[in-house]
Amino acid sequence: MIKNILVLDFETFYDKEGYSLRTLSTPEYILSPKFQVLNLAVFDLNWPAPKILMPSEIEPFLLNYPATETLAVSHNALFDMSICSWRYDWVPARMVDTLGMVRSLRSFKRNSLGAVAKELFGHDSKGDVLPKVIGLDTQGIKNAGLWPDFCTYAMNDARLCSQIYLKLLPEFPVEEQKVMDLVLRCAVEPVLHADVPLLQTHLDELRKRKAQLLRESGYGRACLMSTAQFREALEDLGVEIKTKLSATNKIVPQFSKTDPFMAELLEYDQEDDDTNYKVQTLAMARLSHRSTIEESRCQKFIDIAKLPWPDGQPLLPVPLRFGGAHTGRLSGEWGMNLQNLPRDKTKSKLRSALLAPPGHKLITADLAQIEARIVATMCGQNDLLQQFRAGTDVYAGFASIVFQRPITKQANPHERFLGKTAILGLGYGCGAERFYKMVTTQAHQAGIPLEGLFDPEIAQKTVNTYRSTFSKIAAKWRYLDGKLAQFINTSNPTQEAAWDAKTWGPVTFSSGRIGLPNGMALRYTIGDQSLYGARLLENVVQALARIVVMQAAVRLAGQGLRFVLQAHDELVFAVPDDQVEAAKKTIETEMIREPAWLPGLPLAVEIGTGHNYGECK
């Protein structure tokens, strides 16, 4: 039971020599030998004003606030709560991040404490002392005569944080507070371990491959990193460069890793064998040297796991950003996004390097085709819904319609792949050109040959077939065009409109927003000309999918299961070895529980278990 509400704001030492959160991840910063708490501004909401605690006073103070009875609030709780946990072994019963509240409830350009205070209250009153104390410890700040101003600054931050919390709390549903706490706990109380030897071997292999590709390409690293030099090298080999229109409306080469042209270069076969090999190798070297996410993330995992965690354990906290996306979905933090780890174990060992703690196994629960199922439910596409309910192979079924012959998973995996991509990708109004790029990119990544099977003409046929077969889905795009014009894109929506005109299933339309069944909302800029019905459908469906997934997470956590990671539509739990079978049944029951706010939604879940994350797939 919560009896205390504390606002906490740590002020810590940093310098211009590389020791700061600009150059280090939060774990590297907090667990560094250079880490120093300068002071802690605390504000019990029963007090008349915040107070300053010196480092020696912090631990005794926290001990007087039983963690099981305390709710702690911070602006960037991933930082402040991690200090409480890793440095003081104190983790409150409930954690609230006002930064996450602001991201999920407002659409401010900047979400820093001062910027939010100015937006909400018209002032920030933060002063200018902070730049003056860079590189100074407590004594240095006092010697410079800045200590009174520094303490005033810290207490003002705590006060502003409390004001933001109290201002936004009435809009922030209790269930979302529970979700936020679960998300913060993944980092603040890390459970996953890292297989450091596996990561180091993988990193060494990545670097050796890059070096080999660079040598074989015959070009220097500068050529690979420079778009102009890379283009010149290809043109010297007789390659005709394909271009695209950039986001700033400039014509640029198709050199991004997701561009179909780069996939074509990797399979270049238009000249003599020697030229073909040079083009292919040059493209591979370019992608390897510019696409360093795998390498940098691998190094980050190693560096964090090797930090001085308790008992020398190679812990790997999972930082997730609450309200990271417009639809409410979580995103990654600290430069170590664990939400988009490659699923193909032959391409990435990062999943396999995420270990359950000793005596535990990981259980993954991935909601199958949840967006396509929600699309069918919201749009009333009952024939597709019936296929989902019956457990039939929806992908093969649609591919059979496109190719006008029976398609099965075993006999026709490549045709079924096209059916799968269509079912999962065409519900949001995707056109033929975009669908063609989607298929070719995903096929290349999966190593699926498309020659003789797929081309722009087949892409157009597939799009047409989807829209005619699932006509109610296409009709809902036009329906939402109307709601956009009638409600969302106007500052004066018809107030007298009937309730059923303002609602669509579990969502409600109003000026600049779509209300969601969890009490949150999708927010829009009135008059945004980039909006259209199919995009609204995508937003709504992704938001509803997030609610389904995280409501299940809250229910399962309430039953004692330790939530450690969320990735897209998948939840991951760490479970004691002797409880795995019982936990699997509980997880399956909760994951497929029909939401009361969307009756008729057929849910299905894929459960995996393993000693590491890779084994769960």
* Share of residues in strands: 5-15%
SS content category: alpha+beta
Profile the largest sheet: 5 strands, mixed
Instruction: Please tally the helical runs, counting DSSP H or I stretches of 4 or more residues.
Output: 24
User: What is the mean pLDDT?
Assistant: 92
CATH topology of the largest domain: Alpha-Beta Plaits
Give me the count of strands. 19
- Tell me the CATH architecture of the largest domain: 2-Layer Sandwich
Q: What does this 3D model show about the protein?
A:
- This protein has 617 residues and is an alpha+beta fold.
- It folds into 4 domains: 4-172, Nucleotidyltransferase, domain 5 (2-Layer Sandwich); 198-293, no CATH class; 316-371 and 497-617, Alpha-Beta Plaits (2-Layer Sandwich); 382-469, no CATH class.
- The protein contains 24 helices and 19 strands.
- The strands form 6 sheets. A 5-stranded mixed β-sheet has the order 3-2-1-4-5, with helices on both faces. A 4-stranded antiparallel β-sheet has the order 17-18-12-19. A 4-stranded antiparallel β-sheet has the order 13-14-15-16.
- Strand 7 and strand 8 form a beta hairpin.
- Helix 9 packs across helix 13 (273-290), helix 9 (196-217) runs antiparallel to helix 14 and helix 20 (456-469) crosses helix 21.
- The mean pLDDT is 92.
